[in-house]
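Example 3.2
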Amino acid sequence: MNTTQKVAIVTGGASGLGFAIAKKFTESGILTVIIGRNENKLQKAADELGELAHTISFDLNEASGIPELIQLIQDRYGRIDILVNNAGINLKKPMLDVTVEEFHKVLNTNVVSVFVMSREVSKMMIAQGEGSIVNISSMAAQYGIPKVIAYTASKSAIEGMTKAMAVELSPLGIRVNCVAPGFIVTDMTATAFKDDPQRKEKILSRTPMGKMGDPSDIAEAVYYFSNGTSSYVTGAILAVDGGNSIGF
């Protein structure tokens, strides 16, 4: 392994925003480890991304196994320069019908795994003297959206964690930032809009640019936070949303 080769980890990198981020990284010469649960999807993504894409099948809900996972990546590639905490799940359901088990499941995937991944990767980055962590939030953390109470709680936590992590880790050479995607054309948004055309129309009507975004828009923002052009930026939350969060 060439120790000058930058190494990135992208969770949930086999599809949607994660795939777009991994694509931007590999096209930029960054060795990118994509993590997901579905081996077939991972392999298909790697075949499309090329030789700089490497895969590891792992369920991030198994938090106790994350330290071993990160050690494996460190041993295999020699360094970890970038962590993108992208993996997440949604639950579209009226608040009064959400069970405690469902609420816990969303928070475990979207919050607990992000904390443990960041904690373990930070240990490696501190030894290197530098690193960049990029978390993925959502418009759900910017304003109230009905029927996504657990997802909203999780993404609000991500934005708070970003700031807290940045304060602790930046003096140690690790920048921590967050990208808050607006409504992007992905399978997740397609599911959210299924049988709910009024929801989509409402979103577009309050988006000044009048359209949904492309996964590549998010990838470009994540790449900015991941390289030297943002060397004096930490603890920032960047909305990439066509103006949705400030729309009326």
